[in-house]
Amino acid sequence: MHSTYSYPKFDAPRAPELDAAPGTARRPVVVVGAGPVGLSVAIDLAQRGQPVLLLDDDDTVSVGSRGLCYAKRTLEILDRLGCGQPVVDKGVTWNVGRTFLDTEEVFSFDLLPEAGHERPGMVNLQQYYLEAYLVARARELPALEMRFRHKVTQVEPHGAGATLQVETPHGTFTLACDWLVVCDGARSPVRSMLGLDIEGRVFRDRFLIADVVMKADFPAERWFWFDPPFHRGQSVLLHREADHVWRIDFQLGWEADPDEERKPERVIPRIRAMLGDERPFELEWVSVYTFQCRRMTNFRHGRVLFAGDAAHQVSPFGARGANSGIQDADNLGWKLGAVLSDRAPETLLDSYHAERAFAADENLLNSTRSTDFITPKSAMSKRFRNAVLGLAREHAFARALVNSGRLSVPATLHTSALVTPDRAGESFEGWMLPGAPMDDAPVAVDGQPTWLLRQVAAGEFTLLVFGDTPVTLPDDLPVPVGLRRVQRLGSATAPGDLLDTEGHLSRRYDGRPGTVYLLRPDQHVAARWRAFDADALRAALRRSLALQ
Ligand SMILES: O=C(O)CCc1cccc(O)c1
């Protein structure tokens, strides 16, 4: 098969633990799995100065393009981790999706219908590129040590962490750690070693992924067909990737034979039927998959924490897998960092499970709904689905029911125990309620145009103050808090103030003069008030850190 990508080969030199006295090798944090999620957690912790050891059993990046669509929020997290820009530069930016029934468009959406955001609704990029950019970033961080061809073969958890057996090309060693973060994918060998369950539904359908290389002038949009003439009775999804690679997902049905369907002599005619005989293409990667929608009962088991596909899995439709995994990393990084630096109790990590299981349930619900629409489970569901598709040609109400996958959006953590509800009598317009992931907005700082999220990316709590209202941060806060002031266009600014050049920031946050937002290190709103109150700030911070 043709390949547009040269896979790097990472070195696996002899591990120093092989020559250490038995029982002496110990690390504060070990992360297992150098996929996008493991790399993100490790980078986040290392950016906080926390020493991390990242282990992976392979010596290259993801083989085959696999994960594909990176949502706006994920790009913003990658910005904070220092590698959003190469992803956007190399990837294919898109916002619009179209759904067709047969040959007719029945539904379309725009992921980002408003201006004033740095990042687009979505960027498509082969997973190997994302991993390579994350590895390059990881190498810049002195606190992060990566080890390839290091396979964890045994795990023994205990109150003070876990003890691992690690197999390498040069021998096997024992390693203790205070905290173990498990990001070893959907089949999670570590989860199996610990005998932990993951529960949910297996979907009885099969899909063929064909990544093809071709010169095509289709727009950078998501196109989804129900019952197209070139693949009758099934669905097809088309996405553009980098390097003139196109991802085509063909629904095959449960009866399809995966070994047969993978063969080029089966795949090529399907693609020809879709693209026509005149368009030359080459196959880059072919795979047949089934999927499950399921999650672990608890993402925290003492000092062992699960993230990404190891903890929860959804169907590819909606692109909620990799995105939610990177959002897990975003949630876990600052919390584990706070515990490791003795600024928060270990119980803060219970909120990692609570918040990310809440997000996983939202993803599971959306994923299950779209999967049920794409692959109806009963004659009745199929009749409903076909009726909706039929009505969608003519009626707007039915178009809204067409579900080929609702694309990934981050969860608003409004039920979280860490979040301080609005005060009675204080009302706000808009979506920036406590628990919400922050909306971006253009600003200028010291005369330079920049973005709000870039200004609150230092990995600490920030107090955003609108207008000139005087604020003095108390000396006895439990963690450092950055103070940033927002000024409207035409107001005087001091060095470092955020000038709201287009009014988006004040509007999106309903930032009337005197309004104050407490923002978490993962850029979620922790609390907000119409006027600064030092006691309220202290209490909200303590709540965000599980100190009360
Ligand atoms: O557009 C979608 O709903 C998801 C596209 C996607 C994501 C990951 C794998 C894959 O084959 C398709």
Brief summary:
It is an enzyme of class 1 (oxidoreductase). With about 550 residues, this protein is α+β, with helices and mostly antiparallel strands.
Protein architecture, described:
Its cofactor is FAD. Residues 28-362 form the FAD-binding domain. InterPro entries: FAD-bd, FAD/NAD-bd_sf, RIFMO-like. It comes from Sphaerotilus sulfidivorans. The protein has 548 residues and is of the alpha+beta class. The chain is built from 14 helices and 28 strands. Strands 1, 2, 8, 9, 10, 11, 19 and 20 form an eight-stranded mixed β-sheet that branches. A hairpin with a 2-residue loop joins β5 (96-101) and β6 (104-110). α2 (72-80) packs across α3 (84-90) and α8 (321-340) packs antiparallel against α9 (348-374). The radius of gyration is 24 Å and the shape is globular. 46% of the residues are buried. The ligand O=C(O)CCc1cccc(O)c1 binds at residues 67-69, 209, 222, 237, 239, 247, 249, 316-319, 405.
Write down how many β-strands occur, each being a DSSP E stretch of 2 or more residues.
Answer: 28
Global shape: globular
Name the CATH superfamily classification of the domain at 16-91 and 125-197 and 295-367: FAD/NAD(P)-binding domain
Structural class: alpha+beta
> Assembly type of the shown chains?
single chain
Q: Percent range for helical residues?
A: 25-40%
CATH architecture of the domain at 16-91 and 125-197 and 295-367: 3-Layer(bba) Sandwich
Bound molecules: ligand LIJDXRAZ
Radius of gyration: 24 Å
Query: What is the CA–CA distance across the termini?
Result: 58 Å
Low-confidence stretches: none
The total count of helices amounts to 14
Mean pLDDT: 96
Tell me the CATH topology of the domain at 16-91 and 125-197 and 295-367. FAD/NAD(P)-binding domain
Estimated share of beta-strand residues: 25-35%
What is the highest CATH level, the class of the domain at 16-91 and 125-197 and 295-367?
A: Alpha Beta
Largest sheet: 8 strands, mixed
